[in-house]
């Protein structure tokens, strides 16, 4: 069994088709088909079920995928350690992140990291909080930005306590005029996000045992802001998510203050490959510097 076959297997599983896997690996479709066929013949069972819409993993393929990913990660780690002994830094770092981190932090982090380590490739995957945690646990990414509480089995490094704000239509006045309370949310229509994308709002309401009415639900931050701006309700947004948007919505802090804890997660900091370790340190240093510039509080 060859590492080439392992790469083909993982690429097909992640991309959902032979053509997409061939494009990712810079191979011909026939080479991908041949590598997979040889792998399946050696194993003695099929890894995929083919249909008109693409391919999907068999039960055997599902069971084997995590182990094959681990083998590829170990091989990459071996090559990186060998390169390091030669005074070089090389390899690939895969990072999972949710929207506001992808917009506000990652562009500068990747640019400055690439200046330091031009031979290291950085791959970004964007999704919801639960998506990122699952990618880490399945070894699809090396590092991921998530919020607390973290899933069991993850090693986390605190990065930033991101204040939660109540955003309202123009002209809205809370009772205090300067801040909102969580209890006051129950008096208004609250625009909510999809479950995996608005976890901080759900945690906020649950921790205060507040039930709210909602006639609107959206996934992305821009849609939430637009709905609130049109006067259809209020919403809860992290400060980081608000920094990239210009709108006429008002933003009020909560009293007492509320925040989401953003952390950098991995399976194990000690077990990271050299390239991922370098990126881990660079992210932590970059966010600490950003927090100092912004005058915020680090978690």
Automatic annotation (TrEMBL):
<dbReference type="Pfam" id="PF00126">
    <property type="entry name" value="HTH_1"/>
</dbReference>
<comment type="similarity">
    <text>Belongs to the LysR transcriptional regulatory family.</text>
</comment>
<keyword id="KW-0238">DNA-binding</keyword>
<keyword id="KW-0804">Transcription</keyword>
<dbReference type="InterPro" id="IPR005119">
    <property type="entry name" value="LysR_subst-bd"/>
</dbReference>
<dbReference type="GO" id="GO:0003700">
    <property type="term" value="F:DNA-binding transcription factor activity"/>
</dbReference>
<protein>
    <submittedName>
        <fullName>Transcriptional regulator, LysR family</fullName>
    </submittedName>
</protein>
<dbReference type="InterPro" id="IPR000847">
    <property type="entry name" value="LysR_HTH_N"/>
</dbReference>
<feature type="domain" description="HTH lysR-type">
    <location>
        <begin position="1"/>
        <end position="58"/>
    </location>
</feature>
<dbReference type="InterPro" id="IPR050950">
    <property type="entry name" value="HTH-type_LysR_regulators"/>
</dbReference>
<dbReference type="InterPro" id="IPR036390">
    <property type="entry name" value="WH_DNA-bd_sf"/>
</dbReference>
<dbReference type="InterPro" id="IPR036388">
    <property type="entry name" value="WH-like_DNA-bd_sf"/>
</dbReference>
<keyword id="KW-0805">Transcription regulation</keyword>
<dbReference type="GO" id="GO:0005829">
    <property type="term" value="C:cytosol"/>
</dbReference>
<dbReference type="GO" id="GO:0003677">
    <property type="term" value="F:DNA binding"/>
</dbReference>
<dbReference type="Pfam" id="PF03466">
    <property type="entry name" value="LysR_substrate"/>
</dbReference>
């Amino acid at each position: 069994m060859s590492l080439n076959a392992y790469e083909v297997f993982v690429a097909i599983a992640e991309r959902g088709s032979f053509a997409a896997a061939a494009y990712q690996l810079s191979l011909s479709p026939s080479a991908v088909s041949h590598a997979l066929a040889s792998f399946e013949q050696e194993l003695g069972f099929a890894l995929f079920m083919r249909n008109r819409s693409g391919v999907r993993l068999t039960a055997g393929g599902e069971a084997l995928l995590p182990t094959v990913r681990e083998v590829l990660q170990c091989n990459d780690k071996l090559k990186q350690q060998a390169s390091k002994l030669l005074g070089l830094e090389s390899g690939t770092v895969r990072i999972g992140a949710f929207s506001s981190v992808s917009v506000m932090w990652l562009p500068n982090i990747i640019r400055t990291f690439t200046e330091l380590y031009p031979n290291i490739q950085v791959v970004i995957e964007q999704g919801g909080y639960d998506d990122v945690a699952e990618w880490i646990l399945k070894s699809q990414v090396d590092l991921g930005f998530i919020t607390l509480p973290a899933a069991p089995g993850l090693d986390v490094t605190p990065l930033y306590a991101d204040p939660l704000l109540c955003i309202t239509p123009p002209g809205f006045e809370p009772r205090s005029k300067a801040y909102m309370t969580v209890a006051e949310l129950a008096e208004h229509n609250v625009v909510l996000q999809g479950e995996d994308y608005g976890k901080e709002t759900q945690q906020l309401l649950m921790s205060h045992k507040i039930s709210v009415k909602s006639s609107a639900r959206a996934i992305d931050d821009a849609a939430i802001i637009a709905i609130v701006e049109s006067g259809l309700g209020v919403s809860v947004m992290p400060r980081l998510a608000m920094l990239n948007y210009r709108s006429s919505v008002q933003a009020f802090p909560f009293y007492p203050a509320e925040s989401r804890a953003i952390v950098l997660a991995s399976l194990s900091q000690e077990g990271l490959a050299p390239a991922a370790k370098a990126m881990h340190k660079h992210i932590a240093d970059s966010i600490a510097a950003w927090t100092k510039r912004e005058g915020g509080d680090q978690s």
